[in-house]
Amino acid sequence: MAKPDSVDTALEQALQRLAVLADASSAMAGTLDLREALRRLCGVVLPRLGDWCAIDLLRDQNTVQRVVVAHHDERELPTGRLEGTLPPAPEESDDPLARVLRGVGPLLLDEDALREGGEDAFHSAQRELFDRLSAHSVIIAPLRTRRQVVGALTLARGAWRTPLDDEDVALLEELAHRTALAVDNSHLFASVQHVAERLQRSLLPPLPVSAPYEVTARYVPAPTAAEVGGDWYDYFPLPDRASALIIGDVIGHDVQAAVSMSQLRNMLRALACDRREPPSEIMHRLDLITEALYPTYMASCIYARLESTATNHWRLHFSNAGHPPPLLVEHDGDTRYLDDSHGLLLGVDTTQERPDCEALLPPAATLLLYTDGLIERPGESVGQRLRRLREGAAALAREPLDAFCDEVLADFGSGSSDDIALLAVRLPN
């Protein structure tokens, strides 16, 4: 016997609702950017469940921010901004959104109920939203985590569609629950990322006064990871009046990588100050220490000595352990990579000799040391990135050193999934 049409219809509707929930979860899970996740949610909900929707989040001190307003037909959105911070809601406001943000709901509202509330600025902003986007029936559901309400999800239909009903309320309540989890996870991720970044920055040294030349550095954490990394830079004067320049990267993205980075940095400082030896010998000693104390870790590093010459030039004596080559940018825009010295990573093979390299740096030149987060991107070869970096740096040859570094990061730092550290030196005329 064939099933009644009503059973088939109910089954089809149930499957459609499950599909909405699955698609919404998948859409929000596809990005770590909260605003983008919420926009993707609206893209799933509209027009299947409604004509337009809005998402409001509670910020510090109970400030309400309208993060997203979306319509299934973008042409229906007014030119004026509907998103942004809402006026403060009176503590006992009867406005439906204010009640939901206090924990009531979800609420199913008809046209009359939409206008309930006082004449305060908060309710006026809500009324304006409903009037401008034509709301005939509305559901406002709280975004509720285990601890608190973090916002509200509003779904609306116009008069030309069947009004929202109790079944829609149940579905939107489940969507709001999943959205609240995404909001909560995003806040947790941001908090962990902030702590991780503060830890990483605390492990990087302050740069001492660097006369007679300028020295500046930059550190940018990985934008998509709540983990500390192993990138570091260092600069300090040596007892023999030369200066030490260091850039390095411990392989890995965890607390242990950051701790190892800090310990390697301190040991390299001690070796450089204690022994007046060629950089290759200093790196060899550091390699032996790495093998003894951190046998499972590898790191790339450049250790360089910078000292003046009698000809008003500067001599750079360095050893490179598997690190991207330094870039020399002369004042007239000529550029070249100092890639004559390139040895194995630290922690690979302590029996191999480490190469040394010397280069004469002309007056007013800029030397740029950087980690691989600046030059590695999916879909683009390292060779292409190095050529682009060289061309971009040439155009910045006469910019002030801080502007030089900021422009390099602006032009080449976006899109990185790794930390980026820069150390730049500008020599005197």
Describe this protein with a few key phrases.
429 residues, alpha+beta, Beta-Lactamase, Phosphatase 2c, domain 1, 5-stranded antiparallel beta sheet, 24% strand, elongated
Summarize the structure.
The protein is an alpha+beta fold.
Strand fraction equals: 15-25%
The description of the largest β-sheet is: 6 strands, antiparallel
Q: Measured on Cα atoms, how large is the radius of gyration?
A: 30 Å
Instruction: Give the terminus-to-terminus CA distance.
Output: 95 Å
Number of helical runs? 10
Q: What is the CATH topology classification name of the largest domain?
A: Phosphatase 2c, domain 1
Which parts are unreliable, with pLDDT below 50 for 5 consecutive residues or more?
A: none
Give the H and E element order.
Answer: HHEEEHEHHEEHEEEHHEEEEEEHHE
The CATH architecture of the largest domain can be given as 4-Layer Sandwich
Shape, per Cα inertia axes: elongated
Let me know the number of strands: 16
| Secondary-structure class | alpha+beta
How would you describe what is shown here?
The protein is α+β, with helices and mostly antiparallel strands and 429 residues long. It folds into 2 domains: 5-194, GAF domain (Beta-Lactamase, 2-Layer Sandwich), CATH 3.30.450; 204-426, Phosphatase 2c, domain 1. The protein has helices spanning 5-29, 34-45, 96-101, 111-114, 121-133, 166-203, 255-274, 279-293, 382-395, 401-412, and strands spanning 52-58, 64-71, 84-85, 107-110, 137-144, 149-157, 214-220, 231-237, 243-250, 299-308, 314-321, 327-329, 335-337, 357-361, 366-370, 420-426. The strands form 3 sheets. Strands 3-2-1-6-5-4 form a 6-stranded antiparallel sheet. Helix 2 packs antiparallel against helix 6 and helix 7 crosses helix 8 (279-293). It is elongated and about 90 Å long. The mean pLDDT is 87.
